[in-house]
Design a protein that fits this description.
Jelly Rolls, 2 domains, globular, 9-stranded antiparallel β-sheet
């Protein structure tokens, strides 16, 4: 399908809201197959480790820098260093109880795919799993290793049809005949006690040329989960040598709660994106928002 554009700050950027039907994929059949595959994904404990450090920094502000130094090793391995145990000893009983209650809220997989076009033919190669690192200036640059999607998913004909459709959109925009895709399956869980955070990092880019930010496969007992897109950041410099400051500004240019079977293809070099928290709808004890996303890199 042809990819449209969205206008921001006087320039056009590739951007397309689409549905599975427009890609030639029967939405009901696709979601019926994929929906249960999210329930067996591994929990993302990297989120828990980050929240552990941030909680300790909130409770022990004088030790913020020391705790930040512990983050890379703890985030990657999950092994608590001795110094972290000493910080935990400084918590009150209620604080320690709150620390121990921090639980994962995302289940996910990440699969690397090599794509090569030969004329109109598309070759899909499933690459060996490797650490996932994003081009970011925060904790997301640290290596994470996620389980790949199941053989049942990777071998399904509708999955292959989706990958080819995404690659064709990317080729039409980026002009590359060879690319690497990172396919994410992510299920965000919300309970009566805890909201689900689709993007705990906030407004961000994924460090790719383009992305499919979400193809929604399931919305079960939740509200929220709006997809929000922002313009490129403008760096504003005050010319006054005395006052002298720099600030960055962006503007919201799109907001929509995608329905099941809908997705967004968008530029990731210039545009930024976010998804609002999801909340469980009573009387259900829990709910989830499950999506498939793609990071797209030319090679």
């Amino acid at each position: 399908m042809a990819v449209s554009v969205i206008r921001a700050q006087g320039r056009d950027y590739p951007f397309q809201v689409f549905d599975l039907g427009s890609l030639g994929i029967p939405a009901d059949e696709f979601t019926a197959f994929f929906r249960p595959t999210f329930y067996t994904l591994q929990w993302d404990y990297y989120d828990v480790r980050l929240r552990h450090i941030r909680f300790l920094q909130k409770c022990l502000p004088a030790d913020t820098k020391a705790l930040e130094c512990l983050l890379p090793s703890y985030y990657e391995t999950g092994i608590r260093p001795a110094l972290m145990e000493s910080f935990l000893a400084g918590l009150s009983r209620d604080q320690r109880r709150e620390f121990d209650a921090i639980a994962p809220f995302r289940q996910r997989s990440a699969t690397n795919l090599g794509i090569s076009f030969f004329g109109s033919d598309c070759l899909i190669e499933i690459l060996r799993p490797r650490h996932y690192c994003q081009s970011a200036c925060d904790y997301r640059a640290m290596p994470r290793l996620f389980q790949a999607a199941s053989p049942e998913v990777l071998g399904h004909s509708l999955f292959k049809t989706l990958v080819v459709a995404v690659a064709q959109m990317a080729r039409s925009v980026l002009g590359c005949a060879a690319m690497e895709l990172v396919m994410h399956q992510i299920s965000v869980i919300a309970t009566g006690q805890q909201v689900g955070l689709p993007v705990p990092e906030g407004i961000h880019q994924d460090g790719a040329r383009a992305i499919v930010s979400a193809i929604v496969c399931d919305l079960e007992n939740v509200t929220g989960g709006e997809s929000v897109v922002f313009s490129p950041y403008l760096i504003i410099v005050n010319s006054d040598p005395v006052v002298g400051f720099v600030k960055a500004e962006t503007q919201e240019i799109f907001r929509q709660r995608l329905g099941v079977g809908q997705g967004i293809f968008m530029d990731d070099l210039h545009l930024w994106h976010y998804a609002t928290p999801v909340k469980c709808v009573p009387p259900a004890a829990s709910g989830r928002r499950s999506i498939i996303g793609f990071d797209i890199h030319c090679r």
